[in-house]
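Morning F.,

Quick status update on the modeling queue. The single chain you submitted on Monday has been processed. Sequence for confirmation:
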Amino acid sequence: MAGATRKTSQRPVKVVIDSGADIPPDIAAGLDITIIPLLVHIGGKTYQDGVDISGQAFYEELEATRSVTTTSLPSLDALTQAYRRLTGDGYDVVSIHISSKLSGTFNAALMASTADGVPPEAVAVVDSRSLSMAHGWVAIRAAEAAREGKSLDEVEEIANRASSRVGLFGALDTLEYVVRSGRLGKLPGTVGNMLNIKPILTVRPGGDAAIIERLRSSEKALARIVELTAEQQPLERLAILHGANEKGADLLLSMLQPLNPPQPVVTGHIGAVLGTHLGPGAVGVCFLRAE
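Structure tokens below.
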């Protein structure tokens, strides 16, 4: 984060995120959130997540290609240019990123915030300690506070508080893509020969991903997600995301209705970065608990 000796600033604040937040484009645009794309390498090609390839197109290519799909960080230059542009235009910046336990993007953002031409007192870097729309809810709360005229320190504090209130539960259709991506070691509780189960993924408070349960059918996995979500109430925000599995997302939404979920429930695709590791068919919830 920016230094503790930061002077009080009266400059307006803008929020920067990486594409791992999976915020639907219309919501990001409405809050003027700057998205730095992560990179996806598939079938010998490199794509900017959310820029060169859509969610639907990504999953179609993921299933069609037999090559190993990988992801990588945005360039330091992309982050640095965003910070220079926004601070040069008179803004302070709160830059919020995917869990540092799961990606090096947070550390790259820290490095970019001290690059030449970036005033370090004008940029705060926040670890969401989560991913997908759980990360997204942190950024949305921060952007809403910025729109209300909150200061850099205030927006940073709101983002940090929100990061302690977000969570997710996702049902994977298979462990195949986790194994293929080489991230098995980052998901405690997985066993390589259990590819026919329907595991449930979460992110723990410290930012580590884990498979917490294994079920024998998609229906049972979704029912368990509903039970786990009910334990998190009261909720302030809720999103349902899926990997080319609209049917599963619709079913999960209907199963959640008895909980009277906060409205509107945001729906969308799991982006290419997380989708690379989870594969098609995944579906889950990302929530922000009430304060």
